[in-house]
Amino acid sequence: MTMKTSSAAQLATFAAGLRFDAIPEPVVRFAENLLVDWFGSAVAGHGSRPVETIAHFAQSMGPAEGPSEVLVSRAGTTPYLAALANGAASHVAEQDDVHNGSVFHPATVVFPPAVAVAQALQASGRDLITASVAGYEVGIRVGEFLGRSHYKVFHTTGTAGTLAAAAAVGHLLKLDAAQMLHAFGSAGTQSAGLWEFLRTAADSKQLHTAHAAGAGLMAAYLARDGFTGAADIFTGPQGLAAGMSSDSDPARLTDGLGTRWATAETSFKWHASCRHTHPAADALLTVMAAHGVKAGDIAQVVTHVHQGAIDVLGPVVQPATVHQAKFSMGTVLALAAQHGHAGLTEFDRDYLSAATQALRDKVSMVLDEEVDAVYPRRWIGKVTVTTTDGRTLHGRVDEPKGDPGNTLTRDELTAKALRLAAWSGGAQPAEMQAAIDALWNVASWPRVGRLLGQAA
Amino acid sequence: MTMKTSSAAQLATFAAGLRFDAIPEPVVRFAENLLVDWFGSAVAGHGSRPVETIAHFAQSMGPAEGPSEVLVSRAGTTPYLAALANGAASHVAEQDDVHNGSVFHPATVVFPPAVAVAQALQASGRDLITASVAGYEVGIRVGEFLGRSHYKVFHTTGTAGTLAAAAAVGHLLKLDAAQMLHAFGSAGTQSAGLWEFLRTAADSKQLHTAHAAGAGLMAAYLARDGFTGAADIFTGPQGLAAGMSSDSDPARLTDGLGTRWATAETSFKWHASCRHTHPAADALLTVMAAHGVKAGDIAQVVTHVHQGAIDVLGPVVQPATVHQAKFSMGTVLALAAQHGHAGLTEFDRDYLSAATQALRDKVSMVLDEEVDAVYPRRWIGKVTVTTTDGRTLHGRVDEPKGDPGNTLTRDELTAKALRLAAWSGGAQPAEMQAAIDALWNVASWPRVGRLLGQAA
Known about the structure:
Two copies of one chain form a homodimer. The first copy, chain A, is an alpha+beta fold. Chain A is about 50% helix and about 5% strand. In chain A, a hairpin with a 6-residue loop joins strand 1 and strand 2 (about 75). The longest helix of chain A has 29 residues, at about 125-155. Chain A is globular. The interface between A and B is large, with 63 and 63 residues. Chains A, B: This is MmgE/PrpD family protein.
């Protein structure tokens, strides 16, 4: 072929052709981390009303049994319907991973369809990892391509998510490059998800991730069976960018394919609060650890922040709900200081405790020129702590905990997943521990089976 | 409530509250015509590769049996998966209905989910009709609201289609007005469908209608179970118009609700060719009937057309494929003159016959000021026919056959549906006749059952 190969075709060729052995070892390990972290978030969806509603719909429209696991109910169904249910489940606790540059949450749209299909095909753990990396690499680049103008109206995780799901499932189905390109066309022409639901705090976020997982999976299955899609759903004159972006950047679609591993740029969430609170919380924990400061030793904390943090968090002085508390800098730092971590359980239990309120009111924010100048490229955390015995201590982190340069250890990821399961009641501690232990060895699995046991 | 009720809420209240007895008798009869016409188009999808691919996917992801009928295969499945399959089937022959003002094909996104759900619920024929009218009224208004800018990039039948499907299914599920509004939010946030597939003649059109039918159905089921959606998915600052239109007209959403019956403005397709050929073909048939002219008597035909017809049809002089022949004014008029109708079967069999080619080359187009001036509001057909015995005859229609002012009779609709079934082989003539005979009495059905028999 003498024609210049389109970005879409290059991306499809990459996604179809990716081989496990071509993925650098650290990226494979990172993908395992992402999988375990996702698993905790999916189990955290147990008991959530919008999640259970979608899971009920999916199960009621499918067979009574099937090879693919609905994690919130332990039911088995077909891969399409399991992808819908688990896609809904994985984003609701807001503890799933995020790729900062694309403002895209990959795990919730990649792993639900990939795991469901791997279970149905009895694919190996290596195939699951490879397919998931394909999904991350594609989805992140599509999110970057669609740009900030897109994100203003569209929920990128819903829109780019169809492509991520199609890439992952397409890889498991062993699509060739031409079929993968057709799958991209069929996925992208189903891309959807509007932010309008935020105005009334409606349930659509769970529908968006379910939809992306299901639509992308369907696109890949159809392509396997000969169904064709647009040759360039990204940059064509009636494609995604034409319809849904005014600042798209086609170069991002193929940026560093095979050399830049966007998968490993993904951030894990550690604290269960607004991201603007994380740098200061981590800086406080750093200085407490370095100087042996306990929560009771703190007289005052001044956080040195960027303007965006003041804009978003400034209005929240006395939070009235647990959701609001996640936007209270004082509450987040108070919980972190007391428990070493501001997680879902700590919020639910202690966000209005006397000790939390007392410590909360000792925290203030001031604009910091250095921090503000590098935001949002970097999220620096700086705090000045005054202790009850009169010391003035300075704490700093250059990347908040969970970002690629300050990522979570496997022990921290295990602990986080266990906490999420305990929080939702989606799995018993012992079975969750066993499931996580097994998942750490996913690359050696001959076949992907159930991740949790049957219903007790 | 003292707030001004939003257009979205008014539309939802109308869709939820519509009662059979409130629909004027002629509109009910018209809806029955639409249902029979849709049925023919759905059966016409039998054997089509893209349709069968989607139907196979839907059936493979569902149970082995179910209450809802997949028309192309006679299988039974759940309503969601039947809606996907039949939504794919109904648009592929391009013989399904169209609402000119909204550039929207209602039948293919309304009846597949409505019939599938009615079968599952054992709803009455009256309930099916009422729900379908709700779907038409909503979908057409949403299409009009989204405007021409939307249609330039988006396939309105795919996007507005999710709302139409949600309204129809929501009515069958007896959603109240608040639930219907939530269903609209969940449907609209899944609206999708890009024209980019046209560039390579890919299969996406069938995916768009399947997607709309399935996503709208899902939105309604979720709303029944308490799932919430955006309060104004239409005009909200991050809603459909914000993301996907630059000339939206909110007044259209509620235009004449309960007094203007948009359902009855729908056009039936008669000839199986590009719409630009229809006015002239009908004018030719009119003059032939009036003066007893046979095909063999024609020496020359000059068609007096609008510029758009010349732009689209002008390049097609010697069509090489049956698809291209549908854009050849000469071929269409030649088939109509010989057979009284240019249908799918006539095209397949005769588009390159010697008689067709000879007659085709006697047809020309000239720009007509009167016709061009009123286009696209009106589609006037004018021809001047010269006969072999030297007569010059003028023919004219002010509305092409199938448009509301020149609609099809029940005999013509029956004949069309029988032809479509014979063309695809989707049903035997006798069983199709029996099914159509039964459908004409749908309003008296106590329960909606299967439309076709089991597989022979």
